[in-house]
Each structure stands twice: as structure tokens, then as C-alpha cells.
Design a protein that fits this description.
- The protein is mainly beta and 423 residues long.
- The protein has 2 domains: 2-334, 7 Propeller (Methylamine Dehydrogenase, Chain H), CATH 2.130.10.30; 338-420, Immunoglobulin-like.
- 5% of the residues lie in helices and 45% in strands.
- It contains 2 helices and 31 strands.
- The protein has helices spanning 2-16, 327-334; strands spanning 28-31, 35-39, 45-49, 64-69, 76-82, 85-90, 95-99, 114-119, 126-132, 135-140, 145-150, 166-172, 179-184, 188-193, 198-202, 217-223, 229-234, 238-243, 248-252, 267-272, 279-284, 288-293, 298-302, 317-322, 338-340, 351-358, 362-369, 375-383, 386-393, 401-408, 413-420.
- A 4-stranded antiparallel beta sheet has the order 1-2-3-4.
- A hairpin with a 3-residue loop joins β21 (279-284) and β22 (288-293).
- It is globular.
- 52% of the residues are buried.
Amino acid sequence: MKNNIYRFLSGLFALVLSLPLQAQTTTRIATGSEHGLILKSDGTLWAWGRNFSGQLGNGTTTTVNCATQIGTGTTWAAIAAISEHSVALKSDGTLWAWGDNIYGQLGIGSFTAQLNPVQVGTDNKWTQISCYENHVLALKKDSTLWAWGANSNGQLGNGQSGTGIYVSSPIQIGVGSKWTAVTAGVAFSAALKSDSTLWTWGWNRFGNLGIGNTTDQSSPVQVAAGTKWKAVRAGNGHITALKSDGSVWAWGDNSEGQLGIGNTTNQSSPVQVGTGTTWSHISNGYSFTLALQSNGTLWAWGRNASRQLGNGNVTQQNSPVQSTCSSTAVSNIAASVLQLQQNRPNPFSHETTISFVLAETSKADLTVYDGTGRQVYHVQKVFNAGTNDVKLDKSIFSTSGTYFYRLASEKYVAVRKLQFVAE
């Protein structure tokens, strides 16, 4: 029961507060199997719950009933938690971990549990993190992908797999530097590249890799070539993904209706959830799925034994149903939340598109700077709720090189890099 509650909260807050990790300025929550973390807007980090492995990061193994601050630091920027360990980013780009470490999931070069946050290596270029059970995925500023922890089913993506194969320090996955988003499942992984392609690897018992079979993969394999994917979320045995056209697709384990396709048949290739194209955010829980539409309404489907679908009953749902008791609350939580995507294509020569998501209609500034910091483009206007696209053509850019774009609203600032190649 406790595990289901924590997994529901984890899915809900990952859904409505899915901001870029390197620019987090709003309160954020993450949950493990029986512990919780909260990142406050002042940069402080707090924890509570079960602490048998030191997952609260307070120097003890004593369970805590109320949120207690972890250290005195005020520069925490992003958090992730699962099972009995925690991972967090600081605003300086350093990565820290603590708690259970039997599989090397802390990434600190050993298998010893840690009662306080310990830095992962010495690098200060980390930007994204995702963890599930016993492995961790992370991205660096150069868009390279790294992984560590258990690798029984090839979930690290380094071409190896097998019982007893554990990696206790970050290893780079492949040689590419075009990764933009990562998500970890129970023993499998998924990631997006800058060209909007989706790749999966690891455990594939239920077809959860979406590649048309149920064979485990120890290296990344592309899902549905030719498709433009925008977001992806992995769960305990299924994946849900959002296309650039606003449609939602799912595959993998469907024993409890978690794919939302009207039945309980497992799927080894992507299947569309309904026919709608107004979805804006997605998140997977333990055998259930949550999703937001661009109008701010919350929908859910799958397992409901612990009322995790928020529709007032305990009946399993094989298709999306609106969460009748929380749409107002979710709208309030999500107010002014943005999600800035990497521009696509990148690099580009003719035209590129900057996309971002607003949870509500609000004013925002988009500014583009050249490598010297000179402003070359600026727009300030009221943008609509949902996905907004701003197209930039080559006339804005005078010479080949690296440029930066900055999106800012009342509560949010994020910066991305783009590359222009003059012909």
C-alpha cells in the first residue's frame, strides 16, 4: 500500500512539474519506495520517511516522520529518487548521490551505502538524471549519455548484460552527443535524440522496448523509425510516449490496462492511446499512467487498486478517464510551468523551431544571443497554454557558430544552445 502511494505521488509530481532539470526554480518532489524528497524554491533540500539505507541523506539510518533538511546547502537544482537511494543535481552542475549502493547505483566507484550526499566523480557538467530501482541514467551539457548501476538485462546500454554485472562509476553509452532526454524503467531504459528519434534498451519481457519483439537489448535500438517523438516516460513494464503532433502512444505490459488502449493485451510496438492530439505531459506509475491535456485536465488509466487514478473508485481503467477529484488542484500546481525543448533541427542551415510548453496562458520572453552575448532576436508576448512553436530562419544569424536562446517567464528561466551552419 505504501509503495503504491509513493509511486502515485512520484508519477503525479513528475507529470505536472516536468521542467528542465538544469533550470529548476519551482518546488519539486521525488519519491522512493518509502521515502520522499522535496526541493524548495530557495534551493534547500528536505527528506522524510524510511531511512534504513541512509536514503534521507541526514547522516543516520533513523526513520523521519516530517521533512528534515539535508545539510545546509541552498544550491540544489534537481532531484530523483527510487527504491532506497537518492540522486540530486546542484546548480553548479555537480551530481550527488546517497543511500543504498549494493549495485553501484550511487556511481561513486564503490558498493558502500552512503548516509550523506557524496559527489559522483568530479564533473560539473551534468544536466539531467533519471533512476529506477537499481540503475541511473544521466546527461551532460555536451548531450552525451551516461549510465551506472545494475546491468542484469542490458539496461545500461553498453553492450553487456548478465546477473552480477554491476557498474559503480558512470560510463558513456555509445559515442554520440545528441541525446536530449532520458527515462529509466525497472530494468530498461529509453532516451530521445535531438533529431526527435526514440531509442530503447534493456529488459523486454513484455515488449516494453517497442521494437516488435520481446528480446532483451544491451545497446540502444530505435523505436518506429521516421517518427518524431517529443517526450517519453518509462514505468515498471511499459512505456508511454508523446509525439510532436500531440498524440500519445504506449507499449509493453498491459496486464492492468496501463497502456490505455481499451484492452489488456501486451503490445511490442507503439499503439496510439485514443485519437486525441491535445496531450501535453505524460508520466508512468506502477502499472498505471497519468497524462495532462493542453487545457489542464488530468487523465489516468490502468491499475487503480489504491485509487491512484484519482477518479473516486478502485476500478481498473483500460482507457483514459478524467481525474474527477483533482483537475483544479493540478491546474493550480501547474500554473506558469514551462518546459523548454531543444530546438530542432540542430544544427541547422535554413530554419529551426524552438518549442516550449505552457501549463496556462501567460507572458514569456524569448531571446537569442550570439557567442559574444549580443542579442540577435527577441520576442515578448502572451503565449497560449500548451505547446508553442517559434520558428527562426537563417536571416537572424549572420555567421556560422554557436548561439544561445533564453526563455523566461515570471517563475522560470532556461537557456539552450543552438548551432547555425551557413551555406
